[in-house]
């Protein structure tokens, strides 16, 4: 234990001016406030335990924390063989005391969940205080990133004080399991890595044109006839429950998306007459278009499906898509043309789309359709000039908004493109302070046209970490992408140690390389 | 066994005109000539054996073939649990008879090795004829790709006749183990996948600026001080021998590259005074530049190192690099300036480089230096207009040439960029037929700035397969990239089945997905 006590009040970003502690600032994403010093304390896996503070609203039996203690013990001491919380009855164990102000413990993370935490590391103990169990998870993650090993392999942790909270409450990651099926393990591993970066919403774009892997209870033919394979390329109800629970234990919301009326080709396989038959002149062409908006059966089906989906997925939101609807098939269909005439829509098919889209759609507000106050819109298109205009426009109309346009990391390119993600400024647009508060967060998207389990992990990590920091950390403190580089390089090596197949940022090495298996 | 016998004489590329056999043409790369028919024969792992023809120049005890029989048995029958050649004494086994015209068996594949083979599949047997064991390996690979399983899981093979040989003799793949260390397993797995695509030269860019992982017998300090880590990030002599042998058994040459005088920063760590000290005015700046060409000790060292390297690597060629030499450090050094004056080089540092570069360098011929007749030059720079001009220029001067410029597949981009590799035309430049014959092949390069074992395999495969076919197959027969697409899609699924972490080309699925582990 070092007796040298150069207490250093760090404003991250000015660290280099103050000198002193040589180690790179270890936590990713950057906490809002972190002070540490060169003073450090040895840690032993045999004398380390987690405990609930006497005043905590949460105790043993809270599975979110029980599971987290086990998980973080192994993450902190990877060589300790896993399991247990280290309480071997040793005298003077290093104690991590966790004090949660409010239960419950058995609920789900939600919009507005308070993820604040305070973490103090001092001789022989760490004290973690939070409002909710979700904040405690964030604090445990930070704690696990403060533990280092010296050249001799000995574990230690520096004297540290952290006060932290996320800049944005919605920090999402989208996976697409329709363009390619993703095995369950790939999804679970992604959730693990999300938790390491404090991402808190898993946007599951579960079905789309090419395949329908979601095994519906009410409409089993949807996956039976719409999945790539009815047994090997589906998500059973059990699989879905596993994903939801694995996410919950990591404080991650699962936002399921059932995109319609476009992006539904595969739905038609198991639900005949759902999709609009396209016409060539007077004759059906044999192909199908978007969901048919003029049949009552359509709405019976959609309502039933959504009723099931909302019962299966506990989050209070479902994403309904509504994007990229190709009007040409609707235009070609005589019944639809007649309907348009009857309804007085003229030739404006956006009106037909608005007729279809339920009032709680989440979509790009480019069609000018009516939306409820509590709708959240996702901005997914466009270059900076374009999406900044959209941000202005949508927030001016009083709607809450999510940004994903600059974070389509399925768009790969040669070189350090993580820097493009990192330098995004989500609130840089013309608007009042009130407007800027309507930006509730964003998400990094990994669309699946060219992605499956063979390349998902190296394509996601560590590139998605850039957006993760942009969404959590203070923008002024994390304005330098060059200062982020060494931190992200280290964080990437940590991800490797944790079994995440994260690709390199640039030339170099990690102590423990990925061996490939 | 089907009795229907629609014998079909296929010119690949016209297959669709003839109709008949519905299956996609299975072999990648496309053989020069292949005819198959709908007639097919069942195969059983319990009644399948390889044997040497009575007249073969090669028999049991030839390890290249013994090992290949074992390997291909498992590739053909993946569910059979591995090992053995299937000779269970069953009556009427399907026999693969191998007839090699010339030994030896215990040699190494070399420039000019004859890889031709003929393969005939008829009832109860396949006959494989080749000139060398290397040709036999190519034939076994094709045979393994002809075996399919029907919907019931039963193995079969169609009546087939193949006459095949490579268009180009040099079909290489470059790996860079200096920018990132690649674990031995990653290299061996790459060799496996190369063999599946009939690539036959492993260009091992083993050392460079950032690290020196090659553990030299004579100069152990090179890796001790130049590797990322002297134990965990090196290739021992044993590792190198494993790579060479693993390659040899697959008919792959190992072309080691020790690039100099540039690209040598890491050499200076373990070999002080090798590199040129750079100057700022009259004072050494503390940094170092290319190898110092004016010291005798440099040439003693280089000669010794290369003597060792040529004894370790059995191929008759070593790649000596010689690319991207930055003259600014040489310019700044007073001793070198004096030397230039003494030698009458003026201020032309290309003359100094020519003074340095041994007569058997392999490099881009842009410096106009003198080269021996038997030097082979590698064209690695430039857009098509540029490299086509280089091809004209170099072949006009009578030099043999390799093309890699359009195949830097470390340059990733969004979408199906394999198509860019596939549509390269290596002999499309202004020149005589004689000149065009001087194009002896090319190589696909995976430089390592952004690549290590976490992303090597999905970035290599199946994108490298495009160049593999361009280098093996007839260009007219493989002129349609759209026809290649379904074949490469199938081949990619086959690679997955064989345990290669090959990424998808586009939306879809394979029966067996990569599970991630």
UniProtKB/TrEMBL annotation, chains A, B:
Active site per UniProt: 324
Main localization of the protein described in the UniProt heading: other
Entry GO CC: lysosome; membrane
Compartments reported by the entry: Lysosome
Keywords associated with the record: Disulfide bond, Glycoprotein, Glycosidase, Hydrolase, Lipid metabolism, Lysosome, Signal, Zymogen
Pfam families referenced in this protein's UniProt entry, alphabetically: Glyco_hydro_20 (PF00728), Glycohydro_20b2 (PF14845)
Cysteine disulfide partners in this protein: 62-105, 278-329, 493-510
Keyword field contains Lipid metabolism: yes
Protein task: Hydrolyzes the non-reducing end N-acetyl-D-hexosamine and/or sulfated N-acetyl-D-hexosamine of glycoconjugates, such as the oligosaccharide moieties from proteins and neutral glycolipids, or from certain mucopolysaccharides. The isozyme S is as active as the isozyme A on the anionic bis-sulfated glycans, the chondroitin-6-sulfate trisaccharide (C6S-3), and the dermatan sulfate pentasaccharide, and the sulfated glycosphingolipid SM2. The isozyme B does not hydrolyze each of these substrates, however hydrolyzes efficiently neutral oligosaccharide.
Protein name: Beta-hexosaminidase
């Amino acid at each position: 234990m070092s007796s040298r006590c150069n207490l250093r009040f760090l404003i991250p970003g000015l660290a280099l001016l103050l000198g002193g502690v040589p180690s790179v600032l270890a936590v990713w994403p950057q906490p809002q406030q972190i002070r540490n010093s060169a003073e450090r304390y040895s840690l032993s896996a045999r004398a380390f335990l987690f405990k609930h503070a006497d005043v905590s609203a949460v105790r043993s039996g809270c599975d979110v924390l029980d599971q987290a203690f086990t998980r973080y013990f192994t993450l902190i001491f990877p060589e300790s063989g896993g399991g247990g919380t280290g309480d071997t009855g040793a005298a003077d164990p290093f104690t991590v005391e966790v004090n949660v102000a409010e239960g419950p413990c058995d609920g789900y993370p939600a919009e507005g969940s308070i993820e604040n935490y305070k973490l103090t590391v001092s001789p022989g103990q760490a004290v973690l205080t939070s409002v909710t169990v979700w904040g405690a998870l964030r604090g445990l993650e930070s704690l696990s990133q403060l533990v280092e090993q010296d050249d001799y392999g000995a574990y230690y942790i520096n004297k540290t004080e952290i006060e932290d909270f996320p800049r944005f409450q919605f920090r999402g990651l989208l996976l697409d399991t329709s363009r390619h099926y993703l095995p369950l393990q790939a999804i679970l591993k992604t959730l693990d890595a999300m938790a390491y970066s404090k991402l808190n919403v898993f946007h599951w774009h579960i079905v789309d044109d090419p395949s329908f892997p979601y095994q519906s209870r009410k409409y089993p033919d949807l996956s039976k006839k719409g999945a790539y394979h009815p047994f090997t390329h589906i998500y059973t109800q059990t699989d879905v429950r596993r994903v939801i629970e694995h996410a919950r234990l990591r404080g991650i919301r699962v936002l399921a998306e059932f995109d319609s009326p476009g992006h539904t080709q595969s739905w038609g396989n198991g639900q005949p007459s759902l999709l609009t038959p396209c016409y060539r002149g007077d004759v059906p062409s044999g192909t199908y278009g978007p969901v048919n908006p003029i049949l009552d059966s359509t709405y019976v089906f959609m309502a039933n499906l959504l009723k099931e989906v909302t019962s299966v997925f506990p989050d209070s939101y479902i994403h309904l898509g509504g994007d990229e609807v190709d009007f040409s098939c609707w235009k070609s269909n005589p019944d639809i043309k007649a309907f348009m005439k009857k309804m007085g829509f003229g030739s404006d098919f956006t009106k037909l789309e608005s007729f279809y889209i339920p009032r709680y759609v989440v979509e790009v507000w480019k069609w000018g359709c009516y939306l409820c106050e509590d709708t959240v819109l996702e901005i997914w298109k466009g270059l900076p000039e374009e999406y900044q205009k959209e941000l202005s426009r949508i927030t001016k109309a009083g709607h809450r908004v999510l940004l994903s346009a600059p974070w389509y990391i399925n768009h790969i390119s040669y070189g350090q493109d993580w820097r493009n993600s990192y330098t995004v400024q989500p609130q840089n647009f013309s608007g009042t302070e009130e407007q800027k508060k309507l930006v509730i967060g964003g998400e990094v998207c990994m669309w699946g046209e060219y992605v499956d389990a063979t390349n998902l992990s190296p394509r996601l990590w560590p590139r998605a970490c850039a957006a993760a920091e942009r969404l959590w950390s203070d923008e002024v403190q994390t304005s330098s992408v060059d200062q982020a580089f060494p931190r992200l390089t280290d964080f990437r090596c940590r991800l490797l140690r944790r079994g995440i197949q994260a690709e390199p940022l640039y030339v170099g090495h990690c102590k423990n390389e990925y061996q490939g298996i």
